[in-house]
Amino acid sequence: MGRGGGGGRGGCSSGDMDEPLTPAGRFFLQPEMQQVINCAIGFQNPIDVPAVKDEITRTLLRYHPRMSCLLVRDKKGREHWRPAPEVDLDKHIILVPEEEDEEEETNGGGGDGVGEGEGENERYVNDYVAALTVSTPMCTEKPLWEVHVLPPRRRSCVLRLHHALGDGVSLMSLFLACCERADDPARPVTIPGAGGGAGRGTRTHPVTGLRPAGVAWRALLVAWYTLLYVVDMLMHSLGSKDDKNPITGGPGVELWPRRMVTTSFSLDDLKAVKRAAKATINDVLVGIVSYGLARYFELKSPKGRSKDLRVTGLAMVNTRQSPGLQEISSMMAKGSKSRWGNQFGFILLPIYLKKNFCDPLEYVTRAKSMLDRKKLSLEAHFSYAGGALIMSLLGPKLLCLRRIL
């Protein structure tokens, strides 16, 4: 009870089967980083813990060997993955006591109505995840993942996975491998619009159908925007900073208490704005963030701001050749164009903040214009390749000294 297999490689305690971490994995393990992914999942029914253990043994430990590996360091301090003799699921599946739930309800109160109950439940989960973000680092005496099962009436759990195991695309693909379709459990789970069928995992080339002059012009734009944005990224890493603003942190900001608040948007509303601005959903979301920050800064400065503020965001970009989510078996196969692991770069997003309010749709159109230029550049690929090169040649300490933001 409570013990899962070691991915078919149990019983090996020597270093013969150790595998070195990728440069990105080593980077996320540095004390200055310690990136942990916290994912909250809600369910319709109370969570059946024994069934969860059986499913983890059947899928999670079976499909991904890293989920049953320990993090070890050699004599030179370099990190490696080592297969664990066994995986004790009781140490990975953490049951949150009912007492903590009752104490939270006493302190924060709860609603009587259905809507109020749902809001109170959402606040509880948000506060729990916020507390995890400033908790102690994950224990390296066991594989670097946990499942926190919240009290039964919450019908929620929180997955904690160290970023060294993989990026969001990898972990979402692994999560889908643990699910079944409601209409046909025998068929694999797919994301609408993400693939399935002969065309899955393919991308229409942006220069297809262009004349030679158009191809040359596009190549010049790619070269120009790549140079422009790479220089901007280097300037940020060398000391260029944003203007001081109401959300600017201070010394030790990584240890400050966290507050997590969630909201929801109507997909129909997002699509309506998308059509009006001839943009994408991502363009609309960036515009919403820009407009929200502008309004927040105005509220924090009742007398008005004397100038426009320079604020820069950061966005992660999947650098795999095959876009979107892929089947876990194809990601683990050798020679795959969508390999498992941390394969992403980042781009800087200058947030548009005017000192005087304007048409909210203008924030979306400006976000679209900026993101269209970003899509023409190789900024994300440069950040991924550059980071891997620095990690391999100079080590993680130097990379951690120069934070981009």
Automatic annotation (TrEMBL):
Residues 134-284 form the O-acyltransferase WSD1-like N-terminal domain. The keyword Endoplasmic reticulum applies. Keywords: Acyltransferase, Endoplasmic reticulum, Transferase. Pathway: Lipid metabolism; Glycerolipid metabolism; triacylglycerol biosynthesis. Residues 1-24, 97-120 are annotated as: Disordered. GO terms for molecular function: diacylglycerol O-acyltransferase activity; long-chain-alcohol O-fatty-acyltransferase activity. This is O-acyltransferase WSD1. It comes from Anthurium amnicola.
